[in-house]
Amino acid sequence: MAAYRPLGPFPQFFLADGTVNNGGFIHFYETDLTTQKDTYSDKGLTTPNSNPVQLDSAGRPVSDIWGSNAYGVVITDSLGANPQTRNS
Questions:
Q1: Residues 6+ apart with CB under 8 A from 58
Q2: Can you give the pTM of this predicted structure?
Q3: What is the pLDDT of residue 58?
Q4: pLDDT value of residue 85
Q5: Rounded to an integer, what distance in angstroms lies between the CA atom of residue 84 and that of residue 4?
Q6: Contact partners, residue 41, CB within 8 Å, separation at least 6
Q7: CA 88, CA 66: separation in Å to the nearest integer?
Q8: Are 50 and 73 within 8 A, CB to CB?
Q9: Model pLDDT, residue 1
Q10: CA distances for 26 relative to 1, 18, 41, 63, 70, angstroms
Q11: How far is 26 from 51, CA to CA, in rounded Å?
Q12: Is the peptide bond between 11 and the residue preceding it cis, with omega within 30 degrees of 0?
């Protein structure tokens, strides 16, 4: 499968109360939400990101996110609370 952005271009994440998810994390898994899965900072899928990928003060990932096939995603706040889970 070709590389794609599993969360779309320029994503911004918020907490359940509507505030920006400042310093949160995006954890990437297989769709079972148990087995970690790599994402990459380039379309060629050659430079792996850290897992989890940290969010900056605006709730945006600190690196570009590219992947292939399906992902399970868990987005947590900076303290590890789990405000959002999705499969993409």
A1: 12, 20, 22
A2: 0.91
A3: 97
A4: 87
A5: 21
A6: 47, 48, 49, 63, 64, 65, 66
A7: 12
A8: no
A9: 62
A10: 22, 17, 14, 11, 15
A11: 8
A12: no
Q: What is the C-alpha separation between 30 and 12, in angstroms, rounded? A: 22
Quick one: three-class SS letters along the chain?
Answer: CCCECCCCCCCCCECCCCCECCCCEEEEECCCCCCECCCECCCCCCCECCCCEEECCCCCECCCCEECCCCEEEEECCCCCCCEEEEC
Question: What would the pLDDT profile of 49-85 be if each residue is shown by its tens digit?
Answer: 999 999 999 999 999 999 999 999 999 999 998 778 8
Q: How far apart are CA 1 and CA 77, in angstroms?
A: 31
Distance (Å, rounded) from C-alpha 83 to C-alpha 41?
A: 24
Location of structure tokens 């990101």: 49
